[in-house]
Amino acid sequence: MKAFTLQRYSKTDKLELVEFPEPSLQENEVLVEIHSASINQLDSKLKSGEFKMILPYKFPLILGHDIAGIVKKNGSKVQNFKVGDEVFSRLPDFHIGAFAEYVTINENFVALKPKNISMEEAASIPLVALTVWQALIEKANLKKGQKVFVQAGSGGVGTIAIQLAKHLGAFVATTTSEKNFDLVKRLGADVIIDYKTQDFENILTSYDLVLNSQNQETLEKSLRILKAGGKLISISGPPDPAFAKEIGLNFFLKFIISLLSRKTRKEAKKQNIDYSFLFMQANGKQLSEIRKLIEADIIKPTIDKIFPFEQTNDAINYVESGRAKGKVVIKIK
Ligand SMILES: NC(=O)c1ccc[n+]([C@@H]2O[C@H](COP(=O)([O-])OP(=O)(O)OC[C@H]3O[C@@H](n4cnc5c(N)ncnc54)[C@H](OP(=O)(O)O)[C@@H]3O)[C@@H](O)[C@H]2O)c1
After folding, report:
1. Is 27 within the bounds of a domain?
2. Cβ atoms of 174 and 151 closer than 8 Å
């Protein structure tokens, strides 16, 4: 099969399009012909080696976490899918490889594709929507009437977070630049702040929840707009000791991670704010719940650009620019 591979950690190397052996199928796995994949910032971070301490990969590596496609073969113990099913998935860590023609996936990480959207749209959903589900529902238990600040409402995560928060009945504030105001308004944002000309710290007060996806300075400001008892969930760091424990890091790495977030945790505690870091997990059951919200038109995909498979490197560069409006997708079949 054709696949885009990486030979070593590098910020600048391009992925190489090569002939790669088709993956062999295990008993609990489905073999999926990939029709579309989407790009995530995580792909660039893995490529550069930024995550090598917590997600060490072997080379050659096929990057890519999000796919939509068709089941072509089933392992002998697969129960929930049949050949011909249209599916989507966030591939599990250490078993990624979306920038290719085929992938094998343990069925626990797969869900039926929403019927009302295209393969390209379906591929744009899994990683960002699961992130938002795990932040707003699992971790925050966001309730009707609560106030949530979603940073970067025009990004992959933000476009879904605004929609899910509104569905849960929350009041939503977001930041973006002026060119994206119409988009975030359409998605349901109640307060829109131009991060280039305004300071959200001077506008927002007494929030119940912040979904932080930006830098340390934004994280520190976010602490100051929350009310006592509020929650700050960060998906862009710093990682906390609970995360280190969850992924089973050794004593040394646990210590380093504890140091990285010490200042933030201390400040949060002083203000009676619950700080936590979230690193999303692949999850087929949650993705099935998300499918229902898409089929009910509650969550709609937002796609900025679709690149042909051959231009996967250009697609990655575009996402790395940080200017994507929603998601960037590659069309493989
Ligand atoms: N921990 C996890 O599990 C997890 C999961 C998913 C994502 N993440 C992380 O979360 C971050 C966001 O991911 P993403 O996929 O949403 O990124 P993205 O789609 O690449 O975000 C691009 C968007 O961010 C906006 N933006 C850029 N700088 C901004 C700022 N200072 N304030 C407000 N908006 C800004 C841009 O709007 P303009 O063009 O108007 O600037 C653009 O629309 C990344 O760091 C990613 O790695 C973590």
Report:
1. yes
2. yes
pLDDT at 96: 98
**Do residues 233 and 103 both lie within one domain?**
no
Provide the whole-model pTM. Answer: 0.99
Report the pocket of ligand 1 as residue ranges, CB < 6 Å.
Answer: 40-42, 128, 131, 151-152, 154-158, 175-177, 180, 195, 213-214, 235-236, 278-280, 319, 322-325
Residue indicated by tokens 């054709």: 2
pLDDT at 15: 98
**Segment 257-304, tens digit of pLDDT:** 999 999 999 999 999 999 999 999 999 999 999 999 999 999 999 999
What are the pLDDT digits (tens) for 181-210? 999 999 999 999 999 999 999 999 999 999
Residue 286 resides in a domain: no
Which numbered atom of ligand 1 lies nearest the CA of 235?
1
263 in the same domain as 320: no
User: pLDDT averaged over the chain?
Assistant: 98
Of all protein residues, whose CA lies closest to atom 23 belonging to ligand 1? 155
Q: Number of folded domains in the chain?
A: 2
Low-confidence ranges of the chain (pLDDT < 70): none
Q: Best mutation site among 177, 179, 181 for ligand 1, i.e. most ligand atoms within 8 A of its Cβ?
A: 177
- How many residues make up the chain in this entry? 333
- Same domain? 205 vs 259: yes
Atom of ligand 1 lying closest to residue 218 CA: 31
**Do residues 143 and 222 both lie within one domain?**
yes
What does the pLDDT read at residue 254?
94
Distances (CA, A) of 327 to 31, 151, 158, 196, 204: 25, 16, 10, 22, 27
Kindly state whether residue 214 falls inside one of the protein's structural domains: yes
Q: Residue 152's CB: how many other CB atoms inside 10 A?
A: 24
Which residues are 54's β-sheet partners? none
Q: What CATH number has the domain bearing residue 183?
A: 3.40.50.720
* β-strand pairing of 61-62 with 2-6: antiparallel
Query: Domain containing 305: what range?
Result: 2-125+301-331
